[in-house]
Amino acid sequence: MKNFQWTEPQTIEQAIAWLAKANGKAVLMAGGTDLFTEMKEGVVEPDLVIDLKSIPGLASIQKDKDGVHIGALTTVASLAADAMIKLDYAGLSAAAGSLATPQLRNVGTVGGNLCQRPRCWYYRDAQMDCRKKGGSQCFAAKGRNKYHAIFGGGICHIVYPSDLAPMLVALDAQVTISSPRGERNLPLAEFYSLPAKNVRRENVLAPDELVREVKIPLAKKGTRSAYVKLKERETWDFALVSAAVRGTVSGGGLSDAAVVLGGVAPIPWRLGKTEASLKGKKLSQALVKEALRADLQEARPLEENGYKVELVEAAVTRALLSLTRPL
Amino acid sequence: MKKNAYLKMAIGNKPQGKETSTPAPAEFKLIGKPTPRVDGKLVVTGRAMYTHDIFFKDMLYAKILRSPYASAEVAAVDLSAAQNLPGVKAVLKLKEGRVKYEGEQIAAVAAVNEKTAEEALKLIKVDYKALPYVVTPDKAMADGAPRVHDSANVEKINEYSRGNIDQGFAEAEVTFERTYKTAIEIHQTAETHASVAKWDEDELTVWDSTQAIFNVRDGLAEALGIPETKVRVIKMYMGGGFGSKLDANEHTIVVAKLAKETGRPVKITLSRKENSLCVGNRPSTQITIKGGARKDGTLTALSFRNTTCGGLDSGDQCSEPTIDVYKCPNVKVEEFTVFTNTGAGRATRAPGHVQGTFALEGFMEELAAELGLDPLEFRRKNYTTSNEGGTGIVYSSKGLDKCYDIGAQKIGWTRRNLKPGDGQGKKRRGLGMASQIWWGGGVPGTLADIKIHRDGSVEAVSGTQDIGCGTRTYMATVAAETLGLEPQDITVKIGDTVYPWAPISGGSLTAPSVAPAVRDAALQAAEHLRGIAAKKLSVPAADIVLADKKLFDKNKPENSIAFKDLVKGLRREAVFHGERGPMPAGFAYNTFGAHFAEVEVDTETGRISVLKVVAVHEIGRVLNRLTAESQVVGGITQGISTALFEERVLDENTGKMVNPNLQTYKIATSMDMPEIVPLFVDLVDPRINNLGNKGLGEPPRIPSSAAVANAVYNAVGVHLREIPMTPDKVLKALRGKEAGS
Prior knowledge:
The complex is a heterodimer of chains A (327) and B (741). Chain A has 327 residues and is α+β, with helices and mostly antiparallel strands. Chain A has helices at 12-22, 35-41, 76-81, 83-88, 90-98, 102-107, 110-115, 164-170, 188-191, 272-278, 285-296, 307-323, and strands at residues 5-7, 26-29, 48-51, 61-64, 67-71, 174-179, 182-187, 210-216, 223-230, 241-250, 253-262, 269-270. In chain A, 30% of the residues lie in helices and 21% in strands. In chain A, helix 10 (272-278) runs antiparallel to helix 11 and helix 11 (285-296) packs across helix 12 (307-323). The N and C termini of chain A lie far apart (50 Å). Chain B has 741 residues and is α+β, with helices and mostly antiparallel strands. In chain B, the strands form eight sheets. Chain B has a seven-stranded mixed β-sheet, with helices on both faces. In chain B, strands 7-17-16-15-8-31 form a six-stranded mixed β-sheet, with helices on both faces. A four-stranded mixed β-sheet of chain B has the order 18-26-27-30, sandwiched between helices. In chain B, strand 11, helix 7 (213-224) and strand 12 (231-234) form a beta-alpha-beta unit. In chain B, helix 11 (353-371) crosses helix 12, helix 11 packs parallel to helix 19 (704-716) and helix 15 (471-483) packs parallel to helix 16. Chain B is globular and about 85 Å long. The chains are: A alpha+beta (327), B alpha+beta (741). The interface between A and B is medium-sized, with 31 and 31 residues.
């Protein structure tokens, strides 16, 4: 590990000031569960680590008339355990509870989970000079790609590993971003960006910006959400495929639906055509299969990950059908 | 350790035809009961000293620079910048010329802390010229493939035949051929390899995370060119050893040299990545079995062909179960190894038997279905009580039939799908089983001492090592039982080459080697004390009983003397040298078992859940039911883990392993574990040794993956024939079956 400086700002303003001054050579640290593995492997070698944990007020879940505000330093474990979240956003509670292990959930944070780096095994090997690290090729394209993207890859086939991101996108969450220029709000769906836009990054944060909180609109009456995560192991496993869904149930069908996938693309992957085809129809396994057809036609599996197409169908079907199950 | 040497050790010395064993009583007071580990408290409170914990005030830390290339010519290594880094105390060049795998040693550094050592590695300049390589068996076998060694990439490593294979197939009414594959598995010990070396004048002491202190001692002496008498190796506690810790490892020799050069103790702790690349693995296999049988299930022929890959070294011979387990007059075996530019394979918990059993037992299950027979009845039909499939010598004891009876009853064998895949629905359940054979007879000549002090305290001493199996506890139990004391009255001293010789802790041979040696020493001690007590109590020595911390007249128990009071009168502390005796010739000494698994397969997601495993083993006398059960749980955990998850993933395009960490090299978690029911056949081998016990380290690992794969076959009607059975492979097999039907 390369030597680095360490700072513990006491306010958001101080943190941003450090960030701006470091000119792209700093990293933000919350739980550190992702960052430390990257630093130990030499994948990132920052000059400065800005530890956010001393900043007060960033680890809370609060509901007001605008919606639910989740501070960036809220631990994943406390999100999973929150009674209000469980009641209003069952899918989010499930996504948080499905993540990693109890030890990692106790330390990992919501902000950190949304800003984590990809788990591609070529990216994570400092000796592999891949596109994401500034090199000229994607080793996964013709290499070992069982865990890689079936959608949206192109020049870099990572999948975005977060469990919270697809669920929060399905819930129409926004992120509040702080920088020396003030604050801005952005739909989480627009926060993530494809490799084609900037292969070195997975989101649109500028080097001097940080995510302060996530805001979810108030849950509408009758709207439910669910998260189904398919993995190899029972625990401590990233999703092979996950399905985050939200829908308002009326008369055996959904009057509106959001279907977002995890584990299949470099960003949370929204199935717009599927959502449109579901609307107002009676939910059934056959309907979901039919509704998925158009979106799945756009899948571009690599040599070893074709099975993910089949998993999408299983995950989305199970997630959607669970919405109509009696509470 | 070379696998052949390992197997020779596992089989034990050739029986010598001399019956020296004192027959053991049918029932003991302590032996065989569930005794908590004598060192359990130390371990769970974190006070047990592992090699990772060894620390000296002036100690240096070593790191090794390793080749990032699968094959390269190292033209030059420039150490000067590293040598000049403050805090660096020594730098060694370890290689020039050709390197043959990712992870091969190039140079080593000793520095005042790990960080400085790591920085120094970055300052070493190596001039590599990358060379062509092969990292997968398929590529290595292709025409014109780059050669790994000077010889061909494929080499025959074993052949065997008995009877007449052609005639066997001619007599068959059904012939059937299937191919089974197993992936490369890494020895992922919780405690990675570690060594600390310290010189005192010309004497070297090494603390090593090892299964074999004497092998490490001898290997170090040879590598350093010093007498074995000048090397002492110590191993107190160990976080797992599955075969990769059986010799003096390269990094251990390196720290001995660095310590010599610097005059300070030097420690090395391998990273998880080094542990994944450089210290061994279980070779992969591709095994084709062709079998012939009569319609009633009588086997007439078995042909076995294995293509195994152990990287730079030979792969595993896997045919032993096929040669031995089932009665079959005509057998032919051919085994080949394929060399690749990857880390060398090494003995891995039941080398060869795990892979060979996966193939043989999968084949038996599929052939049974083809014949329309109950797979368990099919196995019983071909049962034999002598080795080489009924053509060899008789087993001293074999309780496999009882394992079948107990296991079938406990799992509810009649619940299985009568025809594989008969179940309905998205989630399908199935039952499968597999048989197990292994050696585990122990090593004659193993030594142990019993030392009785005049204050009444007693030591049991042997240069064996407890690698987590409970060695200390059964040594204490055997000594206490024989001397009429309690386990906590015995101080166990092991893990040091200054103690009497004991073999490696591998090959399931520690318990059947060390426990009889302790028993032998304790019997001598008891005999001696009986003689003294006889005089004191004025009764014949033969009538003296040692029990309840006393020696007393069996006809008049109140005529007694306390153990403590008796030994107070000794002139000096009394030492008794015990030895594990030879095994009578004319018999085969093996362990047996059968696993029965129940699984549920999600046919939409390809996910397999193991619901229950009933494991029944025949290991002669059980020494400690508690640690024996743990051993079985561990074997099943590894078996499920490799059946469902574990695989070294190599990238042909770069020659590198892409999953050298525990996030992507997936090991089963506690959440993946089913209900496990460990059971033992109540049987004492009549002649193997003075306790009638056999080994248990490897047996529970052997059939565990096969039983799970067979249960999946019973659930979905298609045998995957390949592990790990990850969702991608399960879905592929299911769709293949749909397309075929």
